[in-house]
Amino acid sequence: MVIGTSTLLLLYIGILLFFFLLGFPVAFSLGLTAVALMLMGIGGGLNEAIIVSRMFRGVNSFVLLSIPFFLFAGRIMNAGGITERIFRFCQALVGSTRGGLGHVNVVASMIFAGMSGVAVADAAGLGPIEYKAMMDAGYPPEFSAGITAASSTIGPIIPPSVPLVIYAILGNVSVGACLIGGIVPGVLIGITLMIMVAYTARAQDFPRGAPFDWVELKESFKNSFLALITPLILIGGIISGYFTATEASAVAVLYAMVLALFIFREVTFPELWEMVKATMVDSAAVTFLVATANAYGYLAVRTRLPIILAEQMTAITTNPVALLMIINVFLLIVGLFMETIAALTILVPILAPLINMVGIDPVHFGVVMVFNLMIGLLTPPFGSVLFVLSKSIDLSLERIIKGVVPFYIPLLVALLLMTFFPGLVTWLPSLFFG
Predict the structure, then answer these.
(1) What letters, b where the CB count within 10 A reaches 16 and e where it falls short, cover 383-402?
(2) pLDDT of 271-309, one tens digit each?
(3) How far, in Å, CA of 249 to CA of 353, rounded?
């Protein structure tokens, strides 16, 4: 069966959207799309053995073990008193400035990013604590919710990062290099957000926090020290080669369990078992999504769709920066309508040949792509961080969106800087991974 490129692309996207509109979960939509295309004679016709084989290959990966471990670690840290200690330390560190709690919000998210690796975990765990503190200090609800939501996007950029792990698996890229590549961009995002907070605080005459107190800083640092060194343990272990990125996820769980169960004693064993069960459900959903996406991606590769698209796009321009800008606009639109992991599983197999063809560093592209999709978590109609925050702080979705809008500016500035200056992403990985 001979089908033109445009028709083939429309079928791949159209059938997938059709299942989305019918209300099928993303994983089922991907699998059913692959079956429907095969029934139409695309990719050699329906072959159940190939579908099963490709789904199995998609999840038969040691690296994929890091996802349930990182998800589990994030749950333990949220429930184990770790987030509160981090917040108190950040408040003592930067809370004395004008608009100080906005800065505290960002710095706390940067530190927590080195532990959880998921934006929703940041919004659900730190979010209510940050929002309540800002409200008690007299900050506007919209601003408080806006900076809380915007700062959560740092979570999947600074390692550990579940989306970057998934990108690395699908793109056949070093997981360690992708994770380390997110460190400088994560700090950059934090700086741009803090500049916006400082500008808004001065323009709207926000209050200053309590005067800086060395004694308070020392005491809060002492109480949060064991939590604060978690990112150093994980990142240091990966960089030094003492353990892999996958093994780092298991270390994160073990360390979080020791803190929550035996040091801080804020989690009981029955509560831990409930977290295990919740993590199993989340992990199963992600794993099944990766499996069906692998079957979908295999069919795309077999029909040479990625190569054809790459050739057509390079006919427009072969300039890596110009091409990245085109892809960025495309991803910003995708982020409006699709969840991050779903977008990664669908698009990475298609875009990977394109970036390789024009010489874009895959680690650079991975961090840019993940951060781009993080912005989508703050945009309706499918902005999951907006929904999680609305539920956890009891503020209407409309008011949260109103508060988030000004923070699109620093986030887009950070995205452009990453796009135009690849060294921001690739410098650290090149030092440690060659």
Answers:
(1) bebbbbbbebbebeeeebbe
(2) 999 999 988 888 888 788 778 877 877 777 777 776 677
(3) 29
- DSSP assigned state of 152: G
Task: Tell me what pLDDT residue 121 has.
Answer: 67
Q: Is the separation of the CB atoms in 283 and 74 below 8 Å?
A: no
Burial of 108 (0-12, 13-18, 19+ CB in 10 A): buried
- Residues 200 and 389: their CA atoms lie apart, in Å, by 22
Both tokens of residue 409? 């500016």
Sign for the CA dihedral angle at 414, 420, 424, 429 comes to: positive
pLDDT above 80: residue 100 = yes
Q: Which distant-in-sequence residues (6+ apart) come within 8 Å of 330 by Cβ?
A: none
Of 175, 177, 174, the C-alpha closest to 165 is: 175
Residue 286 token pair:
């992600």
Nearest in space to 342 (alpha carbons), one of 167, 201, 187: 167
Can you tell me the distance from the alpha carbon of 180 to that of 402, in angstroms, rounded to the nearest whole number? 33
* Chain segment 385-415, per-residue pLDDT in tens: 887 788 778 788 889 999 999 999 999 999 9
Is the pLDDT assigned to residue 50 strictly greater than 60?
yes
* Greater pLDDT, 44 or 255: 255
Backbone angles phi, psi at 138, to 5 degrees: 95, 15
Q: Which helix (H) or strand (E) holds 385?
A: helix 384-393
Nearest to 339 by CA among 291, 365, 374: 374
